[in-house]
């Protein structure tokens, strides 16, 4: 078991993203890491069954990262054991015209999982304080009151958005939803290697576009935007987890362990059966046993 506490960010006053490693070495072989992940996947399956049966709480898992950090494969692998009936993955793309006619959290609230379900956000509402920092001109298309030029997009604007996000997450917690926020922390060097693989391997060509290279030129700006967002929204109740992501298997192990740790704290159990229900079950059993 890896020690996951050190990847958690709660009181983020002095948080600096550069102090967190993108690669670590565990005292496990690659095969041992894979075995641990498989155990975690099985445990998660058991947790999900109880979550679904109890139908009192919900779980929202958020993945944020730079391009090629492994979000898609993380979701595909770690969540491979859960029942698709109780798990929904949402990817937030460029807002539609309808979505732009509402507040920036409107489309997010519509995608929050039901009680008993696991919801996964592949990117999330945090894009509204990340990509808009790097490309503030995007906000001029949103017809926001008081935002008519780039000069209107001040630090106060983002402070208000951070506050809205924290309030939203606190509201979800009060309503019985656990919010898990993961930043897959990949190095610029490893992103380069993964981009090259996408270019060199025909079966991966579809994953790459020239726009990826354009965004790579804003690397430092994105790192700064992530640092500000994490610092402003990490709390004890809803912390961030900074996951070293240069090695995908290591990152999968850490994420799977953290998810299971949080599930274990939720006091999940299959619903108890009343005396009346037990009697009904016994009657049904007798009827079935009499059948030839």
Structure description:
The protein has 292 residues and is an alpha/beta fold. The chain has a single domain, classed as Rossmann fold (3-Layer(aba) Sandwich). Helix content is 46%, strand content 12%. It is built from eleven helices and six strands. Strands 1-6-5-2-4-3 form a six-stranded mixed β-sheet, with helices on both faces. Helix 1 runs parallel beside helix 10 and helix 2 packs across helix 10. The model has no long low-confidence stretch (mean pLDDT 94). One of its GO terms (biological process) is polyphosphate metabolic process. This is Polyphosphate:nucleotide phosphotransferase, PPK2 family. One of its GO terms (molecular function) is polyphosphate kinase activity. It comes from Enterococcus italicus (strain DSM 15952 / CCUG 50447 / LMG 22039 / TP 1.5).
